Amino acid sequence: MRTGLDAEPFTALAFKVMTDPYVGKLTFFRIYSGSVKAGSYVTNTTKGTKERFGRLLQMHANSREEVKEAYTGDILAVVGLKATTTGDTLASEDQTIVLESMNFPEPVIEIAVEPKTKADQDKMGIALAKLAEEDPTFKVFSNHETGQTIIAGMGELHLDIIIERLKREFKVQANVTEPQVAYRETITQETETEGKFIRQSGGRGQYGHVWMRFEPNPGKGFEFVNKIVGGVVPREYVPAVQKGIQEALAGGILAGYQIIDVKATLFDGSYHDVDSSEMAFKIAASMALKETKTKGNPVILEPIMDVEVVTPNDYVGNVIG
């Protein structure tokens, strides 16, 4: 058990990170044991990285005083830490202790932001990264399906403040919109389709030919089955067929949304001794999937959400009613 004595090895907890327009990144920390000097090297035991303490600052409201050394119980800010984030433990280089970190709630609301100009686009990513580093309850990510930049926080007011800080502190003008819904597609009836890719040029050609059976697979995702017998499609080309289907599923057949819950069975096909290749069979498989647009009765799926309601036994009847 650590005792709060200056003679003990240095241990501290970083509890806040902020960006200062004059000195850059400031990391606030409280020392639980030992002491530390400006310019010292310490270990971030949470991440296993080495950090160098730059200037030590004693904060007094909106003013600051630079100090050379800090002791047990002191709360200060330090300049120069690169990898440390809120909740990390800082300790002397020979220590491995990790203090209890902080638990932060997950964001509950999301909005999409887009820069108004090209110049704003270059600055927005940097600004959002700095704001996310300061606030562990604020998240930013890119939705690869819709291409939107999404910011998430603890409520409308929280995100309003983030947008205002973007404009005031970072001079970034951004439009705020609702996140686009990432729909899904699937097929609703079993179908057998043929995919045949043949290309002849001056030299070696391309030849891939498959027969596929596609079936609805509710709640089970994508499943691939190889039912080839007799070597009509050589074994080395079967993985290419599976990969071709998986890549085609990502592009959709109705509106470009990802296709889910489909069972694909490879049951027949043919090959050419010279012209067949993995690429040819990949393309043939994707062509077979696209044929389900007319034969598989595809539909667009909307997102659904499961809601769990917890209530005392005395009120169950009223809640259900």
Automatic annotation (TrEMBL):
GO molecular function terms attached to this record: GTP binding; translation elongation factor activity
An annotated GO cellular component: cytoplasm
Keyword Protein biosynthesis: yes
Domain Translation elongation factor EFG/EF2: 180-297
Pfam families associated with the record: EF-G_D2, EFG_III, EFG_IV
Keyword Signal: no
The entry's keywords: Elongation factor, GTP-binding, Nucleotide-binding, Protein biosynthesis
Subcellular location: Cytoplasm
Name of the protein in question: Elongation factor G
